[in-house]
């Protein structure tokens, strides 16, 4: 039975004397209807309040704390064996090897830049170790889908063709850095590759992603937005605003949560009480997938399906990729203060996304020890070459500090710039500009 106006439904269901001076809510908990609560949903009264369209009246006071936990989709086991033959990835050798090589290269970039920070050669770094399988998500996108990242997704840029020189120039803030030296290391951005510049304040990118997706929808482009974030960022208000606006305005955006178990030192079980982040997607009325984030092919397949929903139906999708942050949070962190080394080693050994992918490739006969060591040494030499070249370059010209705040320099900026030039001239010992590129 269906009641557009609740009072009418009430009138049909119970004797009129019970209606006197009662609200619909009072009816729902009244003593009349033991028999109604005992009946199945299809015989019960469907109620259509403006705020909840598919509820049924019930005389059983239900206080719900949990829903059934959402399953985690996987394709391969930890030995790289595909568990259901119908899920065997339908991909070429070249495509699979490109993904794997990018995972290995990313690992090399991480190792070298992490050490460089430890030696004081760059100011900061964040590694991707343990989470490399997210490259599978980049592989499922169209190159013109817009990416909004958090900071631990450099592999998506690598997949799109960001060069090792570009990575190193950014981390060194030199004169070739696309961001003109104005950002901390790892805050990459690349217009040509449709990768929006990273922002340090957590969750900034989420409402921006919803807005960009709305713009894409209006433009008629057959693209979507991919928005990466960590489970820690999902505690920010902006996460909720972003999901709700995307759901209510039907935006083609994929929210990709890397749930790596930690927000710096705070473990996931102290961050939230619900069923991960995925349960929140359902809460916002959004298509939601939970996936094994250490399984490249599961991540690839989940993103392919999410992209179809986003682009063809103009609907947002939330993907929660379950993984583990193997490295420290950043070079400013020492994770041995809040988790055991053994726990980290166990993850590395037993559920390593790179090893799983390598085993899958080996099972196909597409990879072996010779290829592994040859790519590893090639990647290492290329990374070191770019690293050395970037380190030698000067910082961007001093005047770049004033550019791009506005389209043209405003009178106060012109004044400040002049003042700085005079100071540099007057006190050359205090303002050594020899490490800055000459003004153009
Ligand atoms: C608004 C805001 N609050 C706090 C921070 C400090 N902070 C930087 S990263 C981080 C943890 C984020 O964890 P998560 O989103 O899970 O990403 P992960 O580092 O695990 O990849 C925090 C608290 C920040 N950058 N911005
Ligand atoms: Mg995290």
Automatic annotation (TrEMBL):
<dbReference type="GO" id="GO:0009083">
    <property type="term" value="P:branched-chain amino acid catabolic process"/>
</dbReference>
<dbReference type="Pfam" id="PF00676">
    <property type="entry name" value="E1_dh"/>
</dbReference>
<dbReference type="GO" id="GO:0003863">
    <property type="term" value="F:branched-chain 2-oxo acid dehydrogenase activity"/>
</dbReference>
<keyword id="KW-0560">Oxidoreductase</keyword>
<feature type="domain" description="Dehydrogenase E1 component">
    <location>
        <begin position="101"/>
        <end position="398"/>
    </location>
</feature>
<dbReference type="InterPro" id="IPR001017">
    <property type="entry name" value="DH_E1"/>
</dbReference>
<keyword id="KW-0479">Metal-binding</keyword>
<dbReference type="InterPro" id="IPR029061">
    <property type="entry name" value="THDP-binding"/>
</dbReference>
<keyword id="KW-0809">Transit peptide</keyword>
<keyword id="KW-0786">Thiamine pyrophosphate</keyword>
<dbReference type="GO" id="GO:0005759">
    <property type="term" value="C:mitochondrial matrix"/>
</dbReference>
<keyword id="KW-0630">Potassium</keyword>
<comment type="function">
    <text>The branched-chain alpha-keto dehydrogenase complex catalyzes the overall conversion of alpha-keto acids to acyl-CoA and CO(2). It contains multiple copies of three enzymatic components: branched-chain alpha-keto acid decarboxylase (E1), lipoamide acyltransferase (E2) and lipoamide dehydrogenase (E3).</text>
</comment>
<dbReference type="GO" id="GO:0046872">
    <property type="term" value="F:metal ion binding"/>
</dbReference>
<comment type="similarity">
    <text>Belongs to the BCKDHA family.</text>
</comment>
<protein>
    <recommendedName>
        <fullName>2-oxoisovalerate dehydrogenase subunit alpha</fullName>
        <ecNumber>1.2.4.4</ecNumber>
    </recommendedName>
</protein>
<dbReference type="InterPro" id="IPR050771">
    <property type="entry name" value="Alpha-ketoacid_DH_E1_comp"/>
</dbReference>
<keyword id="KW-0496">Mitochondrion</keyword>
């Amino acid at each position: 039975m269906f009641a557009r106006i609740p009072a009418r439904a009430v009138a049909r269901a119970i004797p009129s004397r019970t209606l006197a001076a009662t609200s619909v809510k009072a009816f729902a908990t009244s003593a009349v209807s033991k028999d109604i609560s005992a009946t199945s949903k299809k015989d019960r009264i469907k109620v259509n309040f403006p705020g909840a369209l598919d509820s049924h009246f019930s005389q059983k006071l239900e206080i719900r704390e949990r829903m059934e936990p959402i399953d985690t989709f996987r394709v391969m086991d930890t030995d790289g064996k595909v568990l259901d033959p119908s899920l065997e990835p339908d991909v070429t050798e070249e495509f699979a090897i490109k993904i794997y090589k990018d995972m290995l290269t990313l690992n090399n970039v991480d190792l070298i830049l992490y050490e460089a920070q430890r030696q004081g050669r760059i100011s900061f770094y964040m590694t991707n170790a343990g989470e490399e399988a997210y490259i599978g998500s980049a592989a499922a996108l169209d190159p013109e889908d817009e990416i909004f990242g958090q900071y631990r997704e450099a592999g998506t840029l690598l997949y799109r063709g960001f060069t090792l020189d570009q990575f190193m120039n950014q981390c060194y803030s030199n004169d070739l850095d696309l961001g003109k030296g104005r950002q901390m290391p790892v805050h990459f951005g690349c217009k040509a590759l449709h990768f929006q510049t990273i922002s340090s304040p957590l969750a900034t990118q989420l409402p921006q992603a919803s807005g960009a997706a709305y713009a894409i929808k209006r433009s008629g482009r057959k693209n979507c937005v991919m928005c990466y974030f960590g489970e820690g960022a999902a505690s920010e208000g902006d996460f909720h605003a972003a999901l709700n606006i995307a759901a209510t305005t039907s935006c083609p955006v994929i929210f990709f949560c890397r749930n790596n178990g930690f927000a710096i030192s705070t473990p996931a079980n102290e961050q939230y009480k619900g069923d991960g982040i995925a349960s929140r997607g359902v809460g916002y009325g959004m298509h939601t997938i939970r996936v094994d984030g250490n399984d490249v092919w599961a991540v690839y397949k989940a993103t392919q399906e999410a992209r179809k929903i986003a682009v063809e139906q103009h609907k947002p999708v939330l993907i929660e990729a379950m993984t583990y942050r193997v490295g420290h949070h950043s070079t400013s962190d020492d994770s041995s203060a809040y988790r055991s080394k053994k726990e980290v080693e166990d993850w590395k050994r037993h559920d390593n996304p790179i090893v799983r992918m390598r085993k899958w490739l080996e099972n196909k006969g597409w990879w072996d020890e010779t290829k592994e060591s040859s790519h590893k040494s090639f990647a290492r030499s290329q990374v070191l070459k770019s690293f050395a070249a970037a380190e030698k370059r000067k910082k961007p010209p001093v005047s770049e500090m004033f550019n791009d705040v506005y389209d043209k320099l405003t009178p106060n900026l012109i004044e400040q710039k002049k003042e700085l030039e005079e100071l540099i001239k007057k006190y050359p010992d205090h303002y050594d500009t020899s490490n800055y590129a000459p003004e153009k």
